[in-house]
């Protein structure tokens, strides 16, 4: 009888666990139902129409317009006839390779500091999140008209237009540091000039990096606070150093947040108003007579490039992400 009762308890526990998972699944679907309904009824028809426009040519008439299918003509125009599309696309990808590591590393560093016990911790967190609020809506427009913001932008881009990271360029008085300064500091350490230029670019773009790191810092803070303090206490009792605790405990536990922030930063960089590719697509849309369909084809190619980069980032980082298993 005792064994039978134990088996009945195990079966009932499994059933309760499965029913709880089903309830959570239903709640999840209910939570995203408004988005799914809006996507199917509003966004999906717009996406299909946009795809049709990318393969067509518009003829305006007195009663409206007619869409003539021209196949891949708009895509061939963007790739082989437009003078700056491919060059601007490669420039956007290069800017992405520069921004994503810098923003993710800076966000993680600041989040680790803000997670420490100190006075005024909430105030410092609010300060780092302020740029996220400032960069939205009417406040962003006011900031672009502000002379102080313009001056900071000149500092971030190297002052008078001379790239601080450009090889052979003279030192710029408005830049924080120059290639020559860093090269002189690393002299004798056998560090390549490319790495020196990257460090200089990060230092001179610190304003933009801080301005784009608010959301990432909050995500990292949420991940750091989800780690159980008991794990840290046990490591300290075993004699582990702070450096060892970070790489053996903290870094693996927040690795899912690193992947999330990398994906978020990629999307944010590609859809930013400062992105040259977005500005090019908008200029083509409002420029020539066939600009609407040609810009639509450019936007779809740009979208496919973003998807491929996101898949590449997920594939590279997915093998290093640690997911903690929890018993249900």
List keywords for this structure.
single chain; 328 residues; mainly alpha; MetI-like fold; 3 domains
Helicity, in percent? Answer: over 70%
Q: What is the assigned CATH homologous superfamily of the largest domain?
A: MetI-like
**Biggest sheet descriptor:** 2 strands, antiparallel
- How many individual helices? 15
Within the CATH hierarchy, at the fold level, what is the topology of the largest domain?
MetI-like fold
Report the oligomer: single chain
Detailed description of the structure:
72% of the residues lie in helices and 4% in strands. The chain has a two-stranded antiparallel ribbon. Helix 1 runs antiparallel to helix 15 and helix 14 runs antiparallel to helix 15. The chain has 3 domains: 54 residues; 202 residues, MetI-like fold (Orthogonal Bundle), CATH 1.10.3720.10; 44 residues, no CATH class. The protein has 15 helices and 2 strands. The protein starts with a helix and ends in a 10-residue tail after the last helix. With 328 residues, the protein is mainly alpha-helical. A hairpin with a 2-residue loop joins strand 1 and strand 2. The longest helix has 53 residues.
């Amino acid at each position: 009888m005792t064994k039978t009762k134990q088996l009945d308890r195990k079966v009932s526990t499994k059933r309760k666990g499965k029913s709880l998972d089903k309830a959570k699944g239903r709640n999840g679907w209910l939570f995203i139902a408004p988005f799914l309904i809006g996507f199917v009824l509003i966004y999906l028809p717009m996406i299909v129409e946009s795809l049709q426009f990318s393969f067509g040519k518009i003829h305006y008439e007195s009663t409206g317009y007619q869409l003539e299918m021209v196949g891949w003509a708009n895509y061939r125009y963007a790739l082989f006839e437009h003078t700056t599309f491919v060059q601007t696309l490669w420039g956007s990808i290069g800017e992405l390779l520069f921004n994503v590591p810098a923003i993710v590393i800076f966000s993680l560093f600041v989040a680790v500091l803000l997670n420490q016990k100190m006075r005024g911790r909430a105030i410092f967190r609010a300060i780092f999140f302020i740029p996220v609020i400032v960069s939205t809506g009417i406040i962003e427009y006011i900031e672009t008209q502000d002379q102080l913001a313009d001056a900071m932008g000149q500092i971030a881009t190297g002052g008078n237009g001379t790239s601080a990271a450009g090889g052979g360029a003279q030192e710029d008085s408005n830049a924080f540091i120059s290639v020559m300064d860093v090269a002189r500091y690393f002299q004798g350490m056998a560090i390549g000039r490319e790495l020196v230029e990257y460090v200089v670019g990060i230092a001179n773009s610190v304003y933009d990096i801080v301005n784009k790191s608010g959301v990432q810092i909050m995500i990292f803070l949420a991940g750091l606070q989800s780690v159980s303090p008991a794990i840290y206490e046990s490591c300290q009792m075993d004699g582990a150093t702070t450096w060892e605790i970070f790489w053996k405990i903290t870094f693996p536990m927040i690795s899912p947040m690193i992947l999330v922030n990398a994906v978020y930063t990629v999307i944010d960089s590609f859809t930013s108003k400062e992105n040259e590719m977005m500005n090019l697509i908008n200029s083509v849309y409002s420029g020539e007579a066939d600009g609407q369909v040609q810009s639509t084809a450019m936007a779809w190619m740009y979208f496919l490039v973003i998807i491929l980069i996101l898949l590449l980032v997920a594939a590279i980082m997915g093998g290093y992400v640690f997911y903690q298993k929890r018993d249900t």
